[in-house]
Specification:
With about 575 residues, the chain is α+β, with helices and mostly antiparallel strands. About 60% of the residues lie in helices and about 15% in strands. It comes from Planococcus citreus.
Length: about 575
């Protein structure tokens, strides 16, 4: 049996053992006075209204039923108060948006409400309090006792239940302070309602209820508008953070992380729309990015396809609303779901899908917030792509597409810092120069020489791979930067490069030939190697040392050789 089923069975068994027998005993020992049906229905209606107009404290709905609970208890006694509290509990549970199953919440909350009512009511009675008393001093003292015991019992039960489930909960927290403040702020309303109803009848409910619920509704609207304003402010902050990112990957990651945090979702997906297919670009689940193991699907499939075809956003409060739509890539625990197409220059580029385990996780205004964020995202992504192109243009050789001297200068400086800080044990530089390259240009033309440089760049890139960085140092000189390579290993690596180039046949077009036909030629290279920390602890000295080894140790020794720098 899974843990949830076991917990549900235990709670319902406990409920059967506690609540029905407890109600029977309370009715036997503390029966209610004669009841007027109109009075009970009026109070019930006010209980329902109190549940329909909660106050939002720090984003958590707070139901102000305490002022009615105390008044009902003082007038009708424990049994009626328990019954109305149980009905209130059901309404509150149905309205609260949590991921926990109703089959678990109903028995627990029913037992909790029953226990709070029983403990507070019996304390009131044993302390000498009288039901339906009109002695104001007694009403205030014993009513306050009832309210205080209710508050304390509620805190102990919630704390104990959290400990049983091995969940973290502070006994004293900001929520506790708010509950305490609200409980005792509404207490005067309870006394006023009870005393007024005793003298004026049901008219007192209207005299106090109308202004109370009007005030609650105003506060509810105000807190909602405050939430919208706060979300807008957070969206603006996220927009600035996205704009500060210089690479497209950083923009993607920051967007997904911040949106998931803002909307408190469990799952977030960014899907690319390209060539009639949807391809997963980011998969964010349980606060971390997951491997992209999903295959592309047709653009008209799933929630993403629906958003693209209709070019519209969608929000679902529970799985029952979207389970008929194929959504294989969305986590199976998802309940609430929100999807929005991402457009750039009036063209749909992809879809953002957010999902949460809890039902009713999203609010209508969040669609507008998400639309604003998607615009920030699209603009920031376009800017990052332009920045990357500009950087690539400034760091790459226009002919060979290899890194240039400017980039190499920065890269070798960073690597040397790592050597000096102990983060890298070794660093080697291999400098290469094509032998007799001027003769090749003179014989076949400079464009033919450029073809050799391009083919050589591709050859070096394939040979070096991810082991290091290949750069064109200038003219026919090339450099390979090898972090972590000792001089001995670098010499072997350089020798392999030399042999591979020596036997490779380069294909060029002879510019100086009347036919401009293709010609196959072979070249050789002279190579110099310098390493740190053996040869130097300075970046520029590494380049000079490799250059010295190239010309003195390889060129002057007959070319087509590999030479190491020696002090």
């Amino acid at each position: 049996m899974d843990p949830l089923s076991k917990r549900r069975n235990i709670l319902w068994a406990a409920w059967l053992f506690i609540v029905p027998p407890g109600l029977f005993l309370i009715y036997q020992y503390y029966p209610p006075p004669s009841l007027e049906l109109a009075d009970v229905l009026a109070y019930l209606a006010f209980f329902v209204l109190a549940c329909l107009f909660p106050m939002n404290i720090s984003g958590v709905p707070t139901y102000l039923v305490q002022w009615l609970t105390v008044a009902v208890f003082l007038k009708y006694g424990l049994f009626v108060e328990v019954i109305l509290s149980q009905l209130t509990m059901i309404i509150v549970i149905l309205r609260l948006r949590t991921s926990e199953s109703l089959s678990v919440r109903i028995p627990f909350n029913s037992m909790m409400f029953f226990a709070i009512s029983a403990i507070a009511g019996l304390t009131f009675l044993f302390a000498g309090g009288e039901i339906a008393s009109l002695n104001l001093a007694d009403v205030i003292v014993f009513g306050l006792l009832f309210q205080t015991v209710s508050f304390i019992a509620n805190q102990f039960i919630l704390y104990g239940y959290a400990r049983i489930l091995r969940e973290h909960k502070d006994f004293f927290s900001l929520d506790t302070i708010w509950d305490f403040a609200i409980t005792f702020l509404v207490f005067p309303f309870s006394i006023a309602l009870y005393m007024s109803e005793a003298y004026f009848g049901l008219t007192a409910l209207l005299l106090l209820g109308i202004p109370f619920f009007t005030m609650t509704a105003i506060i509810h609207m105000y807190t909602n508008s405050e939430k919208v304003n706060n979300d807008l402010k957070k969206a603006g902050v996220i927009g600035h953070q996205l704009a500060a990112r210089l690479s497209s990957d950083e923009v993607f990651d920051q967007f997904v992380i911040q949106v998931a945090k803002l909307f408190k979702v469990d799952f977030a997906y960014v899907i690319d729309f390209r060539d009639g297919q949807l391809l997963m670009l980011r998969k964010f689940e349980e606060n971390q990015f997951q491997p992209l193991d999903t295959q592309p699907i047709n653009y008209d499939q799933g929630i993403g396809g629906k958003a693209i075809i209709e070019n519209d956003s969608y929000m679902f409060s529970s799985k029952s609303q979207w389970k008929s739509i194929p959504t294989e890539y969305i986590h199976p625990d998802s309940e609430s779901l929100m999807a929005m197409p991402i457009s750039r220059n009036n063209k749909i580029e992809g879809v953002l899908v957010l999902a949460a385990r809890r039902k009713h996780a999203f609010h209508n205004h969040q669609l507008q917030i998400l639309d604003i964020l998607s615009t920030y995202f699209a603009v920031s992504l376009e800017k990052a792509v332009l920045v990357q192109k500009a950087i690539a243009k400034s760091e790459r050789c226009g002919l060979t597409k290899l890194y240039n001297y400017r980039y190499l200068d920065e890269a070798i400086g960073k690597c040397m810092d790592q050597v000096n800080n102990g983060e890298l044990d070794n660093l080697s530089v291999i400098m290469m120069d094509i032998d007799y390259f001027k003769a090749i240009n003179d014989k076949y033309g400079h464009q033919s020489g450029n073809e050799i440089l391009v083919e050589l760049a591709n050859l070096l890139t394939d040979m070096v791979g991810s082991e290091g960085t290949v750069a064109r140092y200038g003219g026919e000189e090339f450099v390979v930067l090898l972090p972590g390579y000792s001089k001995e290993v670098s010499m072997l690596f350089a020798e392999n490069i030399r042999k591979e180039i020596e036997k490779h046949q380069f294909t060029i077009h002879s510019d100086l030939d009347d036919n401009r036909g293709t010609v196959g030629i072979q070249i050789t290279m002279s190579i110099g190697v310098s390493s740190a920390p053996d040869d130097s602890d300075d970046a520029m000295a590494m380049i000079r040392n490799a250059d010295r080894a190239l010309y003195i140790g390889a060129k002057q020794a007959g070319r087509n050789k590999v030479a190491a720098y020696t002090k």
